[in-house]
Amino acid sequence: MDFALSSDQEMIRDTAEAFLAEASSSAAVRAAMQTATGFDDALWERIGQELGWCATAIPEAYDGLDLGSVELVLLMEQMGRRLPCAPFFSTVCLATSVLLEVADESARQRYLSHIAAGDLTATVALTSNGMDWQPQIQTLNAAVSVGADGNILNGSFALVADGATADLLIVPARDINGAVALYAFPSTLSGITRKPLNNFDKTRRLAAITLNNVVLPADAQIATPQQVVATMPRAIARVQLALAAEQLGGAQQCLDLTLAYTAERVQFGRTIASFQAIKHRCAEMMVKIEATRSAIYGAATVAENPALAKDFLLEAAAAKALASDTYCHCAAESIQLHGGVGFTWEYDPQLYFKRAQASAHWLGSADVLRERIAAALLDAT
Q: How many CB atoms are closer than 10 A to CB 33?
């Protein structure tokens, strides 16, 4: 398996690194966090319409760039380093993956070209009370019934990424037979209440969504229960891989911030970077980061090989579990090695610590994912 990046892939990585360092600086992130929506409209416009990043993983048939998982991983790694306040993860990773892997052709035709152009934001409400697909889908309380005006949707979703601002909502709900199907509809429909949450990580806003007698459009159902069962696991694996890449970028930035700080902080007449204990802790951060990078790049390569489709589900879960552990470790170490200022608002480690803790619970915690991997391995024997 060849992990070497092509010249085009290196260009994508380097362009993203340079752009986000300028457009999503620490000051810009902090300013966006204070806005009503929680993200920078101008930054999102540049990402979607000037750079075309929203089209990265979308096939040419839907006006996308038809690039692969490796390219999206490279972008997400750089986004993890800079924490841009924009609905990229919810739209390009979460919603696009579900549309590509689970939705019917009609839905793809309706929505993907608009996402590729950067003029449509979207999100997916995974379950009623959590941020994972399994096993919380069993507690799903959203359901469709037949009314005088057509299909009526009722239910609630407690934690939805960018749920207060997304143009398009994609939600699972039980059909009239009690099976879970997938529905997509504009967020402006009557009966939809979206409540922004005061969540821990202000760089990625969450919302609670309540659906009260929402009359669905005739074409709202985008996947049958059979399609959901057959294809949702791969969609979730794609999102896990993208999130793992973002976590990797955050861990790398924690190390970079720590190296810069310890190189200038003086104690006992010399920089603390010269102390052996500090060196060892920084070295351990790097070891974990590089191991995680290998796992993520490897999973991205597997994702492009149809013959390894079953392996990809495990590879993505393993990459996400490892990335969660690495990010949490590096963020905590960064705060510790910054000393007393590490958790203060004026310094950036606290931003990454919050993101690390929040993202660790998305799409399965490290412990949950290891349980699933173990079960899959034992079932295969």
A: 18
With contact defined as beta carbons under 8 Å apart, do 200 and 219 qualify? Answer: no
pLDDT tens readout for residues 333-358: 999 999 988 889 899 999 999 999 99
- Alpha-carbon torsion, ordered 40, 45, 50, 54, to 10 deg: 100
- Give burial (CB, 10 Å; 0-12/13-18/19+) of 306: exposed
69-82 helix and 276-303 helix, angle to the nearest 10 degrees: 150
Using one digit for the tens of pLDDT, what is the confidence trace for 269-294? Answer: 899 888 999 999 999 999 999 999 99
pTM above 0.90, yes or no: yes
Question: Beta partners for 143?
Answer: 154, 174
**In this structure, what token pair is assigned to residue 118?**
């950067």
Residue 366 CA to residue 102 CA, distance in Å, equals 25
Find residue 267's DSSP bridge partners.
270
The residues facing 155 across adjacent strands are: 211
Q: Which fold has domain 227-379?
A: Butyryl-CoA Dehydrogenase, subunit A; domain 3 (1.20.140)
Q: Are 186 and 167 in contact (CB under 8 A)?
A: yes
Please state, as a whole number, how many other Cβ atoms lie within 10 Å of the Cβ of residue 134.
15
Give me the phi and psi of 377, to 5 degrees please.
Answer: -65, -40
Q: Of 256, 228, 198, give the one whose Cα is nearest residue 103.
A: 228
Where along the chain do its domains lie?
Answer: 7-120, 136-223, 227-379
CATH code given to domain 136-223 = 2.40.110.10
Closest CA to 144 of 85, 205, 77, 223: 223
Helix (H, G, I), strand (E, B) or coil at 152: strand
CA distance 194 to 188: 10
Q: The CATH number of 7-120 is which of 3.40.50.720, 1.10.580.10, 2.60.130.10, 1.10.540.10?
A: 1.10.540.10
